[in-house]
């Protein structure tokens, strides 16, 4: 098969080193002679993976004392419910920056009083609302730092007078964040941290235990903190590959090094979108995501969209179709996507322009 450039939004490209380690571990996990998916999670070999993975999260994101890292099933979508269950007592606010943000808000509304503090729905979520006041009496403010579908990103750690909770599913580990400003950070693994099947939550421990509702055992963050994410069988294979992905990231030089590369990749592609007469970007410039880059055909060129899609596919571009609610194209340039991949897409856009403009 010829070289492919994978720009899929998630599940998505992962480092080759993590894939190779996964293949090897499916044959023989740490010299046990047993495939990693056939070993008890109560073995010391498995526990060492859990410990290493937790330690790597702490090291890479510089997680301060007082925070716990847990690995949970159910994806980011179940975290929407966890957050409301564990923190909503009186009232919570959500920054409505897209479909994922509004799905998170819906879970909270099912349990109590929750509302959108600001929204960019009026312009199909192409920007991040700014300048809103955060009332001091909220249980928490929930934000989605990167809006995977629309290609917008909240690039600052907000100063919030109330606990700040963030869905970082699609930009976690892509840039440095000040963890101490958040009460919870959560993410489905399948965009930057590993394969689908596991979510990570980073939780400020002393913020828990303040709600009066009954918390079902599995939906109580404290269960998973107390049992070190082994209250029940963890998704072992997903965690194994996540650990290998974090090891790769550390070997790349960690967050600052990958961030510099991510910025360069994003700048390369946005520069071409802005230069090329056939394409135009959809997100407000100041809010452009460095992870999901959305663009459409320029006005008057809309009928070329299918043709460009086929043209790019022939040249090995995978997964560049935009989300159905936005249309056009989306290139997801997560950590494991390389400058070479981005350069190949840019070359393809230039070639198409030379043919059509
Ligand atoms: C993909 C995504 C989700 C949903 O993740 P699941 O693990 O599939 O539940 C939630 N939030 C954001 C920002 C996402 O990109």
Short note summarizing the structure:
With 357 residues, the protein is of the alpha/beta class. It has helices spanning 16-27, 44-61, 75-87, 99-109, 221-226, 236-251, 254-275, 305-314, 339-356; strands at 5-6, 67-72, 92-96, 114-119, 140-144, 146-147, 152-153, 164-167, 184-188, 199-204, 279-281, 292-297, 317-318, 329-332. The two termini are 31 Å apart.
Question: Can you describe what's shown?
Answer:
With 357 residues, this protein is α/β, with parallel strands linked by helices. It folds into two domains: 16-251, Type I PLP-dependent aspartate aminotransferase-like (Major domain) (Aspartate Aminotransferase, domain 2, 3-Layer(aba) Sandwich), CATH 3.40.640.10; 254-356, Alpha-Beta Complex (Aspartate Aminotransferase, domain 1), CATH 3.90.1150.10. 35% of the residues lie in helices and 16% in strands. The protein has nine helices and 14 strands. The strands form four sheets. Strands 2-10-9-8-5-3-4 form a seven-stranded mixed β-sheet, with helices on both faces. Strands 11-12-14 form a three-stranded antiparallel β-sheet, covered by helices on one side. A two-stranded parallel sheet has the order 1-13. Helix 1 (16-27) crosses helix 6 (236-251) and helix 3 packs across helix 4. It is globular and about 60 Å long. The protein starts with a strand and ends with a helix. The model has no long low-confidence stretch (mean pLDDT 97).
